[in-house]
Write a structure and sequence with these properties.
Structural class: alpha+beta
Strand order of the largest sheet: 1-2
Low-confidence stretches: none
Strand content: 5-15%
Largest sheet: 2 strands, parallel
Distance between the termini: 48 Å
Order of helices and strands: HEHE
Helix content: 25-40%
């Protein structure tokens, strides 16, 4: 069985830890060690309503970007 532990974190008490986290996380993003899931939909504004209704239905994971060109 897997376990999870949730602990609170207050940024105002440890600003130096927040700065350190931001530095580490931005490095991980640049190096590709951590990624944000996202979906880019093509079709401009005509696709925006479909993308919006598909999000609560679970079609997409993470951020959804509607590309307007």
């Amino acid at each position: 069985m897997r376990q999870i532990s949730i602990r609170s974190f207050a940024a105002y008490r440890t600003p130096e830890r927040v700065r350190a986290w931001n530095q580490h996380f931005s490095t991980w993003l640049r190096e590709g060690k951590s990624v944000f899931p996202h979906t880019i939909t093509e079709g401009g504004l005509t696709e925006a309503p479909d993308a919006l209704t598909a999000m609560p239905a679970g079609k997409y994971t993470g951020n959804v970007v509607v590309k307007i060109s």
